[in-house]
Amino acid sequence: MFYGNSVPACLVILNKRKPPERKGKILLIWASRFFQPANPQNLLRPVDRMRILIPWRAFGDLDQCRKVLPQHKAELTAEIEQVRDVALAEIGEAYGPLLEPLAALRTELEERLEFVKRKQPDGKEERKKFREDKKLNAERLKQLKPMVKSLTKLEAEAEEKRTSVRKAAESDIALVRDTAADLKRIYSEPYEARRYFAVTDRTEIEENEFNLNVPRYVDTFEPEERIEIADALAEFDCASRASLLKRRELRKLLKANGGKETHAHSS
Question: 65 and which of 81, 144, 166, 187 could share a cystine (Cβ 3.0–4.6 Å)?
Fold first, then answer.
C-alpha cells in the first residue's frame, strides 16, 4: 500500500456491526515501530502483522491478547513451515529429474576407474581382449567424468538452495518465537501495552476535536536510555586515563624528533 510514499500512513477501519460492548469505542494501534526497511517502500513482515492483528482481534483487551497469542504463534510457525516445505518440494521437482542418473553414473565411474588399475593378463587372447576393453573403457571415461562433474555441481547447487530455504525458515521461526515472548511481556504490563495500542471512547475523541492522530491516545515516544551515574563516571575516568597516556606518547614523539613540548596542544 502507498507505494513509493516515505511517510507513515494511517488506516481507518469503520465497522457498523460492532458488538454492543464496543459501541462508541475506538481502538487505536501504533504499528510503525516494527517493519522491514526496503526501497521504495517498507514492508510489514508476518511477525509485524501479528503485532497488529492480536490487539485488533482482541480489541485491546490484554487478557484476550494473552489468550490468543499462542494460537497466532502456532499458526504463523505452521505457515512458515508450509512455505519452507513447498519451496523444498519445488527444488526437488526442478532438480530431481536432472539428478536422477547421477547415482548410476557415479557407480559406473568407480567401476571403470577400478578397471584402469587391473593388470594385463598373461594369455595372448586375454591380452587382446583386455586391450580392446581398455580402449573402450578410456573412451567411456572421457564421457563419464564431465557428466558426473556437471551433475555433481548441479547437486551442490540444489543443496545450497535447500540449505538457504531451511536457514531462512529457521530464522523466521526464531523471530516468531522472540516476537511472541516480547508480546507476552507487553500484554502483561498495561503501561507497556499503552505504547502500542489503546482503546478510547467518543467523549475523548470529541475533547480532541475529533482528531484521530494516534500519538494523542497512544504513548508513541521512545523511552530515553537510562544511564547509571556510576557507569558514566567509570567510563569518563577510563577515557581520561586513555587521553593522558596519548598525550604522554605524543610528548615523547615530539622530543624524539627534536620538537618542543610547547608545540603539543591538548584539548
Answer: 187
